[in-house]
Amino acid sequence: MRDDVVELKNKIILFSGKVDNYEEEIKRLRHTIKLFKEEKFGSKSESYQEDLQLIFNEIGVEAQGEQLLLEQEQISYVRKKGRQKKKPFPETLPREDVIIDIPEADKVCPHDGTRLKEIGEDVVEKLKNVPAQSTIIVERKKKYACPCCELHLVQAKSNSILPKTIATPDILSFLMFSKFFQGLPLYRLEELYKLQSIHLTRGTMTRWLIQVSEKLIPIWNVLEERVLECGYMAIDATQVQVLKEKGRKPQDDSFMWVRGSPELGIVLFDYNISGGGKIAKGLIGDFKGGVQADAHKGYGALDKKELELLGCMMHARRRFHKAWLGGGKKPGLAENGLKMFKRLYRFEKAYKEQILYQEERHRARLKEVKQYLEKIKKWCEKKKSKAPKQSPVGNTINYFLNEYDELSVFLTNGRYEIDNGLVERMICKFAIGRNNWMFSDTIDGTHVSSILYSIALTAKENNKDPFKVMTEIFKRLPAAETIDDYEALADLLTK
Predict the structure, then answer these.
(1) SS3 state of residue 177
(2) Cβ(243)–Cβ(250) below 8 Å
(3) pTM to 2 decimals?
(4) What domain range is 395 assigned to?
(5) What is the pLDDT of residues 236-257, one digit of tens each?
């Protein structure tokens, strides 16, 4: 009888353990569903604003008496009165004067008939915008012949980037700007031209972009060489779907790889069917120096002797943010983690505002950031046992601890950034376009997109006007022959 009781107790213990596991799995699945809803219907911003009540009342957040690793903040409010003063328009914009005057009959005083004298005027600048308007360039190529023998004929040559087409540098630049900077698909541009009674099909525009991308390859190669020689590279990949790919289903995911130099502001896109470490190793090649990436296991294939692998603090922070969203934005470990990351990034923001040199930023980090980052690590180690590893916040804490060595490498050199922000921003720009066109049709088209995205977003990262820069490049490109010529064209994007 005693054996039966013992066996029954063991079964009860085993069952209760399974129930706990089931409950934990249900919580995890509910958290996943909530995140899917947030990503589908919620705001895409990862911003976190502290609740004023939580700032002053931490009771119930965790164990009583726990001190967060945060500085106290004095919060004050300034009530806005009326509308804020409008920022002036740039002086570079053309002005068009419009005189608003009273009728001539009203310019006489009704009391004594004296002619009124102008004493001043009120000036208000208003914004006028005209939808894209097309202009026809009529090329007249002069021809000359000898009047005596009529055998010697000479004609001026057209310096066109796409000979025997109607494309000009301006329209090619507009297509690049619209599709790869603003994320507009070509069929919308086709509709835009129809409004002007211009028959310009997406097939024609596609052909032009393919031809232009081939001519831009030497400039792309110059940019790649500069990245591989700079000593500090960032890299990441995002999914892209290609419909017509030999040996693969239309539903199969491929990848757009993004490399860049945070210091030079250069961004390079590369297409590949794989997102694995072998591709990363091939793209990095013989590069020597710091490589910043996420915690993808494929980066383990990289040669650590020649490379210093940096983690991305943005990925760690994002996990705390997702755990906080999945938990209903309630007080707890995830929110406390977000508060600490907010404090951590405040240091980095201050360094940028102060425009510190690399050595100055390095010294400041060792004095302030290093100590605070170590405190976050100790906090995670302390809270690790309070959150099941399978739970969102438990998984997040374990991620931070497992990746801590690589996450803290940015402290070793003032040139390194705290996260992979450059590549993340460029992937976001690519994703905006991807949301519009959803997929690529062919591999060739995807390779073309990788070149044109590289050029357009490199210009953007260097605060250049992509339309003006690309127009100038397309004007000069037909005459480019030497490496020095292409170096000069690359300088238009980055200097």
Answers:
(1) helix
(2) yes
(3) 0.77
(4) 313-419
(5) 988 887 777 677 776 777 888 9
